[in-house]
Write a structure and sequence with these properties.
The chain is mainly alpha-helical and 94 residues long. The protein is built from 4 helices and 3 strands, in the order ββααβαα. α1 packs across α4, α2 crosses α3 and α3 crosses α4. The chain starts with a strand and ends with a helix.
Length: 94
Amino acid sequence: MANFVIKKDGTKEPFDAEKIKKSIAGATQRTDLTEERKNEIVEQVSSTVLQMTGEKEEIKTTEIKEKILSELDTIEPSVSESWRKYEQEKGKVE
């Protein structure tokens, strides 16, 4: 697993797998999926993302986000839509 993430501003911080799960879970909360399905999505996507990070010493937050959204687009597009809508509302779109 990666030891560090590189943020958009270039700073590094210790890698925290829980942040990935929390981000995915947050996006699922803005959908009308069942709690069981939301949990399945969090586990499935975070597992895939963690596998990807395992191959690297450092990883950019943008790479993590792209992988999460790519996985969500495939398995549950309503969640990736929710994520993107939230970012637009918060003015975080790149």
